[in-house]
Design a protein that fits this description.
Aminopeptidase; 13-stranded mixed β-sheet; 2 domains; globular; alpha+beta
């Protein structure tokens, strides 16, 4: 257990360097975000840390807090505290919960890529997390494009501007697509979309007859490209809009010269599986997963 000399408090942007240090050196790390996202995560979402004096010994971050849901975004402990990583994790989870419930969060989610090798999977099951979803992982090692999709669809960079009371440009369309396409746990809000636009090198919308009908964004880290999200409003299904978005995304990854393109999708999303396999993505043997805890 943390000692009486330890302090637990909310983390801020001033703690960024200490968190980055733990991410580089910790034996026990979970990181669901890209490095460029860290400042905005600290700005917009609750994060708690365990400190001894001025030294950060452990942290727990959240992301995509869209009530009634939130996601665990990252966790780490200093190497000196490795033997106590479970005690620190459980303590930080307990301290984080009231900050989430005060925002209207009822469900906290955690995702991993491989239930058999994910070191937090079994741990969280002992802390009232329950299995919620299975995910399939796909990889692609080339830039082959079998079809370019609907050429009447115009692909352009997203344009976002928001005020506290109104949404302009593409924001309203993105939020409508979210509501139509995704369950609550997967949805982004205006804050999340603004952060994504600021931190991801590729974020585009698909227009048909002047109307925004879909979107897609990617991330790149080292030699890997991450196919993060694609969505097309169900009203426009069957018009090869998703195919057009995938083709353009592969063009982007080719320009970035990534060696591997990676993605995850829900087990039951049969349409997505067919689309990705058509483009030469290969399904991996292991399955990802999502766990959920009901905050009381």
């Amino acid at each position: 257990m943390p000692s009486t000399l330890d302090q637990i408090r909310l983390l801020t942007g001033a703690d960024r360097t200490a968190i980055e240090q733990l991410l580089r050196t910790s034996e026990y790390i979970y990181q669901r975000f890209m490095p460029l996202e860290l400042p905005l995560l600290l700005k917009h979402y609750p994060a708690v840390g365990l400190l001894h004096g001025n030294s950060l010994h452990g942290f727990l971050l959240t992301q995509n807090v869209v009530p009634p849901t939130a996601w665990i975004g990252g966790f780490g402990v200093s190497w000196t505290e490795s033997r106590k990583y479970l005690d620190i994790l459980f303590t930080l989870l307990d301290q984080l919960q009231p900050h989430l419930t005060s925002r209207g969060v009822q469900y906290l989610y955690y995702s991993g890529n491989n239930s058999e090798r994910d070191w937090l999977h079994t741990v969280l099951l002992t802390r009232d997390f329950i299995p919620q979803r299975l995910l399939y992982a796909y990889d692609k090692y080339d830039y082959n494009i079998p079809t370019t999709g609907n050429q009447q669809v115009h692909i352009r960079p997203v344009c976002l501007s928001t005020t506290e009371q109104t949404y302009s440009d593409d924001m309203a369309a993105l939020l409508a697509i979210e509501e139509a396409c995704f369950e609550q746990l997967w949805r982004y809000d205006a804050t999340a979309f603004s952060d994504i636009a600021a931190t991801h090198p590729y974020f585009v919308v698909a227009e048909l007859d002047g109307q925004v009908v879909g979107y897609q964004f990617n991330a790149v880290e080292d030699e890997c490209g991450y196919f993060v999200r694609i969505a097309v409003h169900p009203t426009f299904a069957g018009r090869a809009i998703g195919t057009r978005l995938v083709a353009e995304a592969i063009h982007f990854f080719a320009e970035q010269r990534v060696e591997r393109i990676m993605l995850n999708t829900q087990e039951e999303n049969v349409y997505a599986h067919r689309l990705y396999e058509r483009f030469g993505f290969v399904r991996l043997e292991h399955k990802g997963f999502v766990l959920r805890k009901h905050l009381t």
